[in-house]
Amino acid sequence: MVLAAVGQICSTASITSNLAQCQLLVKKAAAAGAKVLFLPEASDYIASSAEQSYSLAKSSERDSFVSALQKDAVQQKIHINVGIHEVASESRLRNLLIWIDDQGAITQSYQKIHLFDVDIKDGPCLKESANVQPGPQIPKPFETPIGRVGLSICFDLRFPEISLALRRQNAEIITYPSAFTVPTGKAHWESLLRARAIETQSYVIAAAQAGPHNEKRRSYGHSVIIDPWGEVLADLGDEYQEPQIATADIDLNLVAKIRREMPLLRRHDLYPEF
């Protein structure tokens, strides 16, 4: 078994402050003996407007955010999975999830494919597609110190096709770094995450934003690690006071045991293969 850490922060428009939160969690995770730290979607910043978001993505502080975490990965001998923004065009950004290995190299990158467009009564109106470019593909799972990881982000959680596609390629851990709204989080966050773990017989690790980012936006929290039987091994809750981590052992023998003893023989002769 190998220890994994999941983090919980509250990003704002201050990249410097957000970096400090992340760096604190890197140190906490390394001190706990974790081999990998999973950080939330948009760990670099959460802006209050599309214009501010685009400006921050182009800033030198955003570049420094990534390079600082690369140095920390080397110093602390830990792998870091972190959500960031990147400029895609003159009007749109990429919502990215990158993997920084313990040598400081960015070895994997995933661009969010399902974008969050919603108008909640008495809640936020968010239209991610207005200024974010959807990703073109589902990347293959890859080997890590804790097992074979498949990457996805936040709203991807509502589409089982992506997790099933990753499972078909032998993913053992699936990520869902997120900034879930409070209403949707209360309604569906744990239910969907447990369902994805059970149906793919994989660990699910979901690092979450928590608390108020600005006067218009608050995130649900509840960073979790869930095992392939659907049991919640760690949950950081929704009360945000400071950056936190939770840890859990990733037992690949348990993954193999569940897949062996509860075989899921899909009828692809009757319905499409996801």
UniProtKB/TrEMBL annotation:
UniProt keyword annotation of Hydrolase present: yes
Gene Ontology terms for molecular function: hydrolase activity, acting on carbon-nitrogen (but not peptide) bonds, in linear amides
Compartment list: Cytoplasm
CDD domains referenced in this protein's UniProt entry, alphabetically: nit (cd07572)
InterPro entries for the chain: C-N_Hydrolase, C-N_Hydrolase_sf, Nit1/2_C-N_Hydrolase
GO CC terms of this entry: cytoplasm
Primary localisation category: cytoplasm
The keyword Cytoplasm is annotated on this UniProt entry: yes
Keywords: Cytoplasm, Hydrolase
Residue span, CN hydrolase domain: 1-252
Family of the protein in this entry: Belongs to the carbon-nitrogen hydrolase superfamily. NIT1/NIT2 family.
Protein name: CN hydrolase domain-containing protein
Protein species of origin: Penicillium brevicompactum
